[in-house]
Design goal:
binds adenosine monophosphate; alpha/beta; 214 residues
Length: 214
Amino acid sequence: MNVLLFGPPGVGKGTQGQRLAREVGIVHLAMGDLLREAVRQGTEAGKKAKAYMDAGELVPDELVVRMIEDRIHNVQGFLLDGFPRNVAQARALDAMLDRQGLHLDAIVFMDASEETLLERLTGRLICRACGFGFHRHYSPPKIPGVCDQCGGELYQREDDREDVIADRLRVYREQTAPLLSYYRNRPVFGMVDANGGADEVYEKLLRMVKQADG
Ligand code: AMP
């Protein structure tokens, strides 16, 4: 099945998407992770994307559209997280799905209060080796600075600094929030309140996705 998760930064798309994709047996395609990997590897795409990412702005559409299209047709079922992030990208996604004879089985909008988002983003810690996410207060690692899953080093994302977070939330309101009107009338659309704890939110998402799977 093909699932699309969207919502503001810090709402839990990455954490929930990773867990959900594993349970359903599909590939988690997280645009931000793909871009950070491209930056780390120093590819042409990564070099172009870096300045936008550091500033909390969106990377140009043609670059992200190309990266996603490359991956979508090589997998059996995917969960998209962080793409599309504006209406032009959503249109490009519809067109590429059409070309490949694919469709979305579930489109889920996750939302939380701005207070929750800020708290989550400023406390977020990520494993450099496996990408697993922690939070300084809500889900701290057993040993400070060390990943429980793989022993890797934990770091704070450059763009999880308060000044960049403000820009990311503005970009979300201006460019990504309009996706709600783009998708909300589709039969496979659903909405999840993501203010609660991770397990509670996960149960809601799982129920919704299983229902979509028939
Ligand atoms: P994320 O990990 O989803 O928070 O994404 C981190 C950063 O990557 C964003 O602030 C953007 O600069 C960039 N990015 C991620 N997804 C997209 C996208 N679909 N379109 C443009 N830029 C993106």
